[in-house]
Amino acid sequence: MANNELRIPLQTPTTGSSSFLKACFNGTNAFLGIGLLTVPYALSSGGWLSLILFFLIAIMTFYTGILLKRCMEADPSIRSYLDIAERAFGMKGRIIVMIIMNSELYLVAIGLLILEGDNLHKLFPKFMIKLGELTADGRQSFVLITALIIFPSMLLTDLSILSYVSATGVFSCLIILVSIFCVGLFNGVGFHEKGTLLNVKSLPTGVSLYIVCFAGHPVIPSIYTSMRNTYQFSKVLLFSFVLTTFTYLAMAMVGYLMYGDRVESQITLSLPTSKVCAEVAIYTTLLIPITRYALMVTPVATAIEGGLSENYKNQRTVRLLIRVGLLISTVIVAYVFPYYESLMAIVGSIFVVSASFLLPCLCYLKINSDLRWGWNCEQMGIVGILVFGTLAGVLGTYSSVYDLVT
């Protein structure tokens, strides 16, 4: 009886209206994000040979995206990642996936505040706030200022309005890449660093940061359902992954050739602030947290609202208090935890591994439980992804925590 109840359509299927090009843009925007700033540091952590793992991660995450599409094709009533988890593992699966996704979004929101504070401090290193006996240094001061700038966007509870604020995401990333390349080409930095062939000790950290670059899987079902012609989705996913992969690759190689093992955890922190191209890159970077913070936190706030009683969940005052509370809590963590690269590595090794490697494979196998097991290439590939994701998660988490406490 329980199994039959789970087969009841979760939502009434609706027809999307997005064109092929719009879906390609949305897909690229989902994957091309703040990982762009850390990928040179990831390459310095692993060395040149770690690029083999980078391409392997890109291929595996592309394939797990295809698995999510197959899960949706198996049941047209599925409309979201949570629906996939519920169809595969019931309500417990839905709750677990919701916790994983919202935890990832919450930590990424903290990372955005740290990112803003670090880059503003790079531009204005002597700035600080003094209130009587209390003094906040430059980085901490800018975290507080950023929160004040972001605050008005937290008052917007309509996600469709917020989506317009973040529409510049892909173009911002491309501007940053071109600007940093121009710093190396025209501002005397050059591309002369040889780097390290392989750095085994910090390789797990590098792999975790590579994994962060492909953290858009929770958005894949939404892009699929938004398309007018869903049969083109595989081409959309391929286009998005190819563009994203080679953009990340270009940034990794440019940044590593410019600064070698001296590259900072965020490439913008290595740039000379006296150069116009560097200022363009840094100021464009500053737009990312302001335009994306509210989008990251809104699903978390919505999940909290869903747990409230009917008397409170629809009250605007309560909804605003939840959003303000989330903003304050993320500011406190960003204020006392300045380690951007460690935070992103932990996000990659725990949450992105779960959402982009393990869960797509497990849900696909569960939904298609009538598959006949054998030693065919696809099933061996799925097992390989599960093994790789598990190892990357365990080793990456250990390495990140070890680097943090030592």
Q: Which helices and strands occur, and which strands form pairs?
A:
Blueprint: H1 2-6, H2 20-31, H3 35-46, H4 51-74, H5 81-123, E1 129-131, E2 134-136, H6 138-154, H7 159-165, H8 169-186, H9 203-212, H10 220-226, H11 233-259, H12 276-306, H13 310-313, H14 316-336, H15 340-367, H16 377-405
Helix pairs in contact: 2-10, 2-11, 3-9, 3-11, 4-11, 4-15, 5-6, 5-12, 5-14, 5-15, 6-12, 6-14, 7-12, 8-11, 8-12, 9-15, 9-16, 12-14, 15-16
List keywords for this structure.
single chain; 406 residues; mainly alpha; two-stranded antiparallel sheet; 1% strand; globular
Distance separating the two termini: 53 Å
Q: Compute the CA-based radius of gyration.
A: 21 Å
Shape: globular
**Strand count:** 2
Number of helices: 16
Low-confidence runs: 1-13
> Percent helix among the residues?
over 70%
Mean pLDDT: 85
The biggest sheet amounts to: 2 strands, antiparallel
The amount of beta strand, in percent, is under 5%
Q: How do the helices and strands follow one another from N- to C-terminus?
A: HHHHHEEHHHHHHHHHHH
Arrangement of strands in the largest sheet: 1-2
Structural class: mainly alpha
Model description:
- With 406 residues, the protein is mainly alpha-helical.
- The chain has helices spanning 2-6, 20-31, 35-46, 51-74, 81-123, 138-154, 159-165, 169-186, 203-212, 220-226, 233-259, 276-306, 310-313, 316-336, 340-367, 377-405, and strands spanning 129-131, 134-136.
- Strands 1-2 form a two-stranded antiparallel ribbon.
- β1 and β2 (134-136) form a beta hairpin.
- It is globular and about 65 Å long.
